[in-house]
């Protein structure tokens, strides 16, 4: 396969594509529970336009948006007990997408029996609504600590990124960018703002370990011992493209990337915050926006999430890898691309990719992931996200 073909394979996610097939081996979040009202919600995921709703019975539905009769949107439909009904001529669909009523036809009409639209299973976990767009039977929805671990209060913000998913996920296989984008560049911005600089640190070495659920990346800062948790343990990017990172005060953040299509990606910045002893659990999992540009249309340059989104978006809508000049420090990115292609090959051979959970590990009590409890650098002085003071999120130190 040529380089160009390889990158086309890695970035195209629609139905029938190899990467789209790979992505369909994982439960994908399609919305935050807190975003759902009593009306259907349009969602676009892996190149499909769908409608998400909570039926009156309490079960969630996710079906093709376009009504197969004469194409009205089911986003304008009526939610019923275990169904959604098109507002135009009343065709009614169950949660599997089977048409069960065509009321304008004669009562003995068999038309409905041959009308079926896409209908996907949906499960709530951790305040996110996860959909299974792959072949059935669906595997278990992996219960990671950030979603179900005890003793956390949870919240999230969402960024709608007009670019391909891969360049977003690749950011996390690139530990060196922390030293430049988040330290050197931050200091460049802070100096312009007349603010004091952060302390620079330098990588002595980085390394990567493949494991069942993803790739762990480890870094050793110059001046730290090889006993440092960042070198001994590290933290993972889990399949297909989610970063899971711990902050020293125990805040756990998952950055979940869900392709809407080849040129648009949703990032869920999902936080599990340790609940102080004696405090009752907070109700629900609130959701907010995490924009990459300010009210003047300029990229946010002085917060960590904004800096990452700035560089991801300026790489192009679908970064053209034929223009790259890779060095030794890009080893993690190269490894990630290679392993993704290997996963696609596994599927072509009729095997399942790594990280698909079909046994009890998906249910009890959560799937542990390697992650540091302590890191050797503080981003104090720069915010985590617009309006989110780093100090409030991770009072002492942070990793990425
Ligand atoms: S367009 Fe939906 S029922 Fe006619
Ligand atoms: Fe970053």
The figure for the number of domains is 2
Distance between the termini: 33 Å
**CATH classification, class level of the largest domain:** Alpha Beta
Largest beta-sheet details: 8 strands, mixed
Main sheet: which strands, in order across? 12-13-14-15-16-17-11-18
The helix fraction, in percent, is 10-25%
**Shape category:** globular
Assigned CATH architecture of the largest domain:
Alpha-Beta Complex
Computed structural class: alpha+beta
Strand % is 25-35%
Give the C-alpha Rg: 22 Å
How are the secondary structure elements laid out?
Elements: H1 3-11, H2 18-23, E1 28-32, E2 41-45, E3 48-54, E4 60-64, E5 78-79, E6 83-85, E7 92-94, E8 99-101, E9 122-125, E10 128-131, H3 145-148, E11 152-161, H4 165-170, H5 176-192, E12 203-211, E13 214-221, H6 229-232, E14 235-238, E15 242-246, E16 252-261, E17 264-274, E18 287-289, H7 304-314, H8 331-348, H9 390-393
Summarize, please.
This protein is of the alpha+beta class and 400 residues long. Helices cover 20% and strands 25% of the residues.
Descriptive notes:
This protein is α+β, with helices and mostly antiparallel strands. The chain folds into two domains: 40-131, 3-layer Sandwich (Rieske Iron-sulfur Protein), CATH 2.102.10.10; 145-393, Naphthalene 1,2-dioxygenase Alpha Subunit, Chain A, domain 1 (Alpha-Beta Complex). It is 20% helix and 25% strand. It has nine helices and 18 strands. The strands form four sheets. The protein has an eight-stranded mixed sheet. A four-stranded antiparallel sheet has the order 5-6-7-8, with no helix packed on it. A hairpin with a 6-residue loop joins strand 6 (83-85) and strand 7. The longest helix has 18 residues, at 331-348. Fe (ii) ion binds at residues 171, 177, 181-182, 308, 400. The site of fe (ii) ion has 6 residues, from helix 5.
